[in-house]
Amino acid sequence: MRACDVMDPARAAALQVALGLTPDITSGSALPPFFHQLYFWTPVPPEQLGRDGHPGRGASGLIPDLGLPRRMWAGGRLRFERPLLAGQEAEKRSCVEHAGRKQGRTGPLGFVTLRHEIWQAGALSVQEWHDLVYREDPDPSAAKPAPPQARADEEVARCVQFSSTLLFRYSALTFNGHRIHYDQDYARDVEGYAGLVVHGPLLAQQLMLLAEDLMGPLAEFSFRATAPLMHFEEASLCCNGTDLWVRAPDGRQCMQASAIPASAVLAGAAG
Predict the structure, then answer these.
(1) What's the number of domains the chain is made of?
(2) Nearest-angstrom CA–CA distance, 149 and 139
(3) What does the pLDDT profile of the chain (271 residues) look like in tens digits?
(4) Model pTM greater than 0.90?
(5) Cα separation of 201 and 34, whole Å?
(6) What's the distance, CA 157 to chain centroid?
(7) CATH number, domain containing residue 90
(8) Which of 15, 49, 101, 246 can pair with 255 through a Cys bridge, CB separation 3.0 to 4.6 Å?
């Protein structure tokens, strides 16, 4: 599947504002890592949406129908080959690298790995592997599995908050219709969450910005969601060396990640 988009600088600047950053992206600016999530929308008509607001099973024409209703972004891996430039056309090439089902501790699970390549000016700019998990509706009577506890040996920690307004803005800018991020009744009554769920990609975006701030331009970044974070919880973005994670107020780990700075790749090539 292929999609083209002009990387509108106004959209990127709007995300900077939403994140509390200075909106300094203009045409020709290098986009921060992961800002390509703002582009390449694939809208489908209302009648093709599922109950959760995402395209219904099989409606996208890319992701197979695994017969399970709940969708979650489980993690991803990225390689940054060269900066994407705002205001210039780019092409996204996507395919399914893996899809299948297996039996988990809490019931059947579906796994899909998408591979994306983003090309600009005839050159490969970003490679991305996008891991999705599908599962059944929660059993209200079943005990919830204990989430992993986060490390407490960070060298750097930054506190961040995720208001319902920020979640709405991020959903709008990424054209993400999943109702767990803006419909509290649905999130609570249907999917069993305590509140609105902070987007996994939004947590990853914050960790990537922290990594770039501490390490300089990134060559690679990988992340895995390990527990949901609610919109009313203040989180800590933590870093120790090239390891990063998100810690909730009760100490649970919501995401773990690893970064490879471009400087390390260059040093390895030179050595």
Answers:
(1) 1
(2) 24
(3) 999 999 999 999 999 999 999 999 999 999 999 999 999 998 889 898 888 888 876 666 788 888 888 888 899 999 999 999 999 999 999 999 999 988 877 789 999 999 999 999 999 999 999 999 988 887 777 777 789 999 999 999 999 999 999 999 999 999 999 999 999 999 999 988 999 999 999 999 999 999 999 999 999 999 999 999 999 999 999 999 999 999 999 999 999 999 999 988 777 666 6
(4) yes
(5) 9
(6) 20
(7) 3.10.129.10
(8) 246
